[in-house]
Amino acid sequence: MFLKSEAISLKQLQYFEAVASLENFRRAADQLGISQPALTTQIAALEEKLGLQLFERSRSGTLLSPAGRELLPHARQVLLKLNTFIEAADMLGETHQITYRLGVPPTVGPYLLPNVLPGLHQRYQKLKLYVREDGPTAIQRDLLMGSYDFAILPLPVSSDDLVVEPLFTEPLKLVVSSENPLAGLPLVPPGKLRAERILTLQEHHHFHHQVKDICSRVGAELLSDYEGTSLDTLRQMVVMGMGSAFLPGLYVHSEMHKPEALWVTEVEGLPIRRQHALVWRAGAPNRIFFRELAASLKEMIEARLGKVVMV
Length: 311
What we know:
The protein is built from 11 helices and 12 strands. The chain has helices spanning about 1-5, 10-20, 25-30, 35-50, 65-95, 110-125, 135-145, 205-220, 230-240, 250-255, 285-305, and strands at about 55-60, 60-65, 100-105, 130-135, 150-155, 160-175, 185-190, 195-200, 220, 245-250, 260-265, 275-280. The strands form 2 sheets. Strands 3, 4, 5, 6, 7, 8, 9, 10, 11 and 12 form a 10-stranded mixed sheet that branches. InterPro entries: LysR_HTH_N, LysR_subst-bd, WH-like_DNA-bd_sf, WH_DNA-bd_sf.
């Protein structure tokens, strides 16, 4: 068994993890930047060395075999340890020249990052960021597995294995059509939202559940049959009179400069907010730098967006 494990390469484990995650050899090969035949050859070599079949291949797709399911968490742990080793070596050199992988939800990233990335680049000229958008649940899962180095996530984040450093609190604005009877009101009494038709994003978004909770509190009707795929889609649906929506303050600030067909307001006596934090693994060797990075982000957010969010 020692000789068998000695012959296995880290690259083969990376290939195994990629195919397992994407459940498709072609997409995995594209992500890895190699040809599909080369990937297939490496997986076959890994299976031969292990004496196990890792995948079940069929016309409908590629699935992990029972043995593959058992081994995948161990492979991910090995790759996570490798990333930790590389990060630790970088910290010893105090260069910060490696590329950090940042996860951020699509309801935050496009409206926050343009305001802070130029300042971060100026302050940390050797810092490189690979930014990827995904839902908060998927980002937290992948952060724990080592696919991200740190992330910007909405709170709460529940894991003893993660460090959470709050960054800012963002208000949610009520956006209605200019033809809606609520248009023109600087503040909307909660009672006037009873039975109001509220649009939201699809259920896999964390934002969906927050809006659902708001609707329960004020007695509004959540339109689950007309869920938007993006904040832009929600805005267009409101313009067309399909319903009203709660939209993040950063989005309103960034994308709705002259909303002639819309009215932006708030609910009276009911501040609706969501809090965001910088999150990283508790055992990350870069944790001192990540805490410094969080302080820098808060400073830049205060300077650029202090009238939109609360730091």
